[in-house]
Design brief:
CATH superfamily of one domain: Gcn5-related N-acetyltransferase (GNAT)
CATH class of one domain: Alpha Beta
CATH architecture of one domain: 3-Layer(aba) Sandwich
Largest sheet: 7 strands, mixed
Distance between the termini: 18 Å
Helix content: 25-40%
Number of helices: 5
Structural class: alpha+beta
Strand order of the largest sheet: 1-2-3-4-5-7-6
Number of strands: 7
CATH topology of one domain: Aminopeptidase
Shape: globular
């Protein structure tokens, strides 16, 4: 799907694109945030649907989507540091919501890093429950029900 000039966001099509997604996650989460590789690269990668963000054909961002109890769980949302602040992340989240709604799920949720919870509120996500630690980082569950997403 095309957004801004040169920006393309879509489901990964081949092994090369999947390797690019894993390189972005390594840069952002393992090197950038100190998440252990065994936590970042987990068993769910095999069953998840992976999304890639390309700028002029260059991989600059990613996410993954998993089905959990008729809900879509957004995970591993990342934009490389040199490409942040240009609204690519906003376009990625919009794509993810639209994509999940088209899948016919009952709702969308994520375990957001706590410091960016307000960012996800602008898309209609609401905080649910109490903050918790995941991979040594404070998180909060954020939920967007199906009727709110459409």
């Amino acid at each position: 799907m095309k957004y801004m000039e040169g920006l393309e966001i879509r489901v990964v099509r081949n092994d090369d694109e999947l390797r690019a997604v894993f390189r972005i996650r390594e840069e952002v989460f393992i090197k950038g945030q100190g998440v252990e590789r065994s936590i970042e690269m987990d068993k769910y990668d095999r069953q998840a649907e992976h999304v890639i963000v390309l700028m002029n054909g260059e991989p600059i961002g990613c996410a993954r989507v998993r089905s959990v109890n008729r809900m879509a769980k957004l995970e591993r949302i990342a934009i490389l540091e040199g490409h942040r602040g240009k609204h690519y992340g906003r376009e990625l989240v919009k794509f993810l919501i639209d994509h999940c709604v088209s899948m016919g799920v009952d709702g969308v949720f994520m375990n957001s890093q706590y410091y960016v919870r307000d960012y996800y509120r602008q898309f209609g996500f609401r905080q649910e429950g109490e903050p918790f630690m995941e991979a040594g980082i404070k998180h909060i569950r954020m939920v967007l029900m199906g009727k709110e997403a459409g």
